[in-house]
Amino acid sequence: VGVYNLCMRMLSIPVGMLTNALGEVFKQRAALDYNEFGTCRNIFIKTLKLLTVFSILLLVFVSIFSKVLFTTFFGVEWEEAGFFAKILVWLVCFQLVVSPLTYVYIIARKLLENLLLHIYILLSSLVIFVIGFKLTTNFKYVIVSYVINYCFVYLIYLFRSYKFSAK
């Protein structure tokens, strides 16, 4: 839990700042375009491309340097956190790209679907952790399953948000 927590905090802090900054710009422009023209697809695609570039850069950086960074800043006993960062960075990268774009759910008034996806996330995460820890003592498999599941949900959000970006 400590390794997971440290990895997520270290990965999420810079990503959160970037997501918040770009997300605010996207929200304002997307809402304006959607209400005025019935579509916000242009700003959606521009934002998607920009966030994808940042995401790829983060993925490459963490994949190359995570082990060195965690041992340098936190000590040799946190070397395993560098390994987990390489797994969790996928989740963070999907989050970086998709989270701001899901504002389209609010603009298009698709709140019920959003709620259902959140319920799925809650239930599936619960199942992954409960069953995962009962079936194996290797928590790496559980974390990988969790990341794959979350990335799957983010893909659903991305495709549905794209669909909703035009009336």
Task: Say how many strands there are.
Answer: 0
Mean pLDDT: 91
- Radius of gyration, CA atoms, in whole angstroms: 18 Å
Strand content: under 5%
In whole angstroms, the N-to-C terminal distance is 43 Å
Unreliable spans are none
Biggest β-sheet, characterized?
A: none
The arrangement of helices and strands along the chain is: HHHHHH
Percent helix range: over 70%
Structural classification: mainly alpha
Give the overall form: flat
Helix segment tally: 6
Short description:
This protein has helices spanning 2-37, 41-74, 79-98, 103-107, 111-135, 139-164. With 167 residues, it is mostly helical.
Describe this structure in words.
- With 167 residues, this protein is mainly alpha-helical.
- 87% of the residues lie in helices and 0% in strands.
- The chain has 6 helices and no strands.
- The radius of gyration is 18 Å and the shape is flat.
- 26% of the residues are buried.
Annotation keywords:
single chain
Q: How do the strands and helices of this protein lay out in sequence?
A:
Blueprint: H1 2-37, H2 41-74, H3 79-98, H4 103-107, H5 111-135, H6 139-164
Helix pairs in contact: 1-2, 1-3, 2-3, 3-6, 5-6
